[in-house]
Amino acid sequence: MIHLRELTLNKDGVGDGEYPFNVQAVKNISRLTFESPVTIFVGENGSGKSTLLEGLAMAVGSVAIGREDISRDQAFKAVAPLAAKMNLVWNKRTHRGFFLRAEDFFGFVQRIRSLRQEMLDELNRIDQDYAERSAYARSLAKGPAASSVQAMDRQYGEDLDAHSHGESFLTIFQSRFVPNGLYLLDEPEAALSPLRQLGLISLIKQMVLQDAQFILATHSPILMAIPGANILDLDQSPPVYRDYQAIDQVILYRAFLDDPEAFIRRL
Questions:
Q1: What CATH topology corresponds to 4-107+181-266?
Q2: Which of 34, 107, 172, 255 has the greatest number of CB atoms lying within 10 Å of its CB?
Q3: Cβ contacts of residue 146 below 8 Å, gap of 6+?
């Protein structure tokens, strides 16, 4: 399902050299329509993929998979003016979903680990404080903290750090993807091997069948091949939706894999 149908940017009163409005993608966009459950932003470094996605996440009010929520994360302070200029048109407003930047993942793992440890410390404190009380009274006191630990363990496992980075990434996706959500993913391939990227594609396909919508920025030709995705080329002015086979990154990867030695000789 397409929850978010359209984005328009009102740039009245904004200076041309003012960040983030001087970023290429933001300068070149006044209106975007989302016509597929999966939209992919592509472009070279500096094209503005991440800036555009961050502003959109703030405008949507997404939950962030990171060390802090978007509203308190200083990293998002710079894109707040961009979010304020975004007008969103919905087919069906959803409050499900999240925003994830690959670089924030370790912060999120630390956040979960810290919350879990706080609950374990609380359980230990209750054991000490209620040492002279009945087992029933101790059980009642421990109920909220014990339930929180059990919920976190069910959702993420007892220790995300025990997995590889890529495995932990997929665990987060598997545990946090729910039907009818809007998911904004910034370069999720950063932690994923090619095989794990195929695993992510499989998860996305399953969630699209359950009315989820995805907007992601990527350099990965594997993720660009998500079936039915609309690929927005932000290197073009204005940005245009292009076929997979016409994307520069796809052409480059294919040519390199066909003859890597020739490319390396030219370096």
A1: Rossmann fold (3.40.50)
A2: 172
A3: 119, 123
